[in-house]
UniProtKB/TrEMBL annotation:
A Pfam cross-reference name: Rotamase_2
PROSITE patterns the record matches: PPIC_PPIASE_1, PPIC_PPIASE_2
Catalytic activity: [protein]-peptidylproline (omega=180) = [protein]-peptidylproline (omega=0)
EC annotation from Swiss-Prot or TrEMBL: 5.2.1.8
GO MF terms held by the record: peptidyl-prolyl cis-trans isomerase activity
Organism of provenance: Thermoanaerobacterium butyriciformans
Protein name: peptidylprolyl isomerase
Keyword tags: Isomerase, Rotamase, Signal
Length: 266
């Protein structure tokens, strides 16, 4: 019995030693600095919930999990390159993330958006700025939904029917009012064509029968959405500038990746 216990302890010790060795292996080398299996597993564990349910879906022959891990490792490589660049330039901060953010702010500070660009974007995306008051009535049974729709068509008040029949607790007490929303965005969500004032036909949505009312349709002016468009365009330009910057860092760096380790990390 004593020999069996000793043998088991030896196996456990070996397994523990191997795990330490495995976690210390470099999954990537960046200018001679390691990104270890342990570091990658830690980063993966912090974000893994984001891809639950879609891990095994395939895109161009690769699973979503494989693509996600490649992107995560590329981000870690970029962060290591940016941190080293920032430290060489004497940038200081509260932590590594703060230092990297200060470097990014510096490298993208030249980005700007002109009024002409904002106006052009507005004209090209004018449909996105058609807003309306959206109301809805949700019902479990198709027959009930048809009955409510008939009552609406006969002139009954939408808000009164929503308070009485809708099972959507978030909106029923407000007469079914969802909010003043972009028609194009809401239409895409529920697969409706919402363009005019009025009530839609019954639509089956995730097991719920839904009736939607559209009211007070109008297009927001350029002045009303100018600031949000500026932020949208600035963010796109910042991301493009950041990509150009990290691409230049990678071009002058020595980077190697152990794809076998990368694919097997869980």
């Amino acid at each position: 019995m004593k020999k069996i216990i000793i043998a088991l302890l030896a196996i456990i010790a070996f397994a523990g030693g191997y795990l330490i060795y495995y976690n210390s292996l470099p999954i990537a080398n960046v200018n001679g600095e390691k990104i270890t299996v342990y570091e990658f597993k830690k980063a993966l564990g912090a974000t893994d919930k984001k891809i639950q349910g879609v891990k095994n879906q395939k895109i161009n022959g690769k699973t979503f999990e494989e693509i996600y891990k490649e992107q995560l490792l590329n981000n870690m490589i970029n962060e290591k390159l940016m941190l080293n660049k920032a430290l060489k330039e004497g940038i200081k901060g509260k932590n590594d993330a703060d230092i990297i953010n200060k470097l990014i702010a510096k490298e993208t500070s030249y980005v700007g958006v002109s009024d002409d660009e904002i106006k052009k974007y507005y004209e090209q995306h004018k449909n996105d700025y058609i807003y309306a008051d959206i109301y809805r009535i949700d019902l479990k049974d198709e027959k009930d939904a048809d009955n409510v729709l008939n009552m609406l068509n006969e002139g009954s008040n939408f808000s009164d029917l929503a308070k009485k029949y809708s099972i959507d607790t978030a909106t029923k007490d407000n007469g079914g009012f969802v909010g003043n929303l972009s028609l194009s965005q809401y239409s895409a969500t529920i697969n409706y064509t919402l363009t005019t004032n009025g009530v839609t036909k019954v639509k089956l949505m995730s097991g719920i029968y839904e009736i939607v009312k559209v009211d007070n349709v109008g297009t927001k002016s350029l002045d009303n959405v100018k600031d949000s468009i500026r932020e949208t365009l600035l963010e796109v330009k910042r991301q493009n500038a950041l990509k150009d910057f990290t691409d230049s860092l990678r071009k002058n760096a020595k980077i190697s990746v152990n794809n076998l380790l990368l694919n097997n990390v869980k």
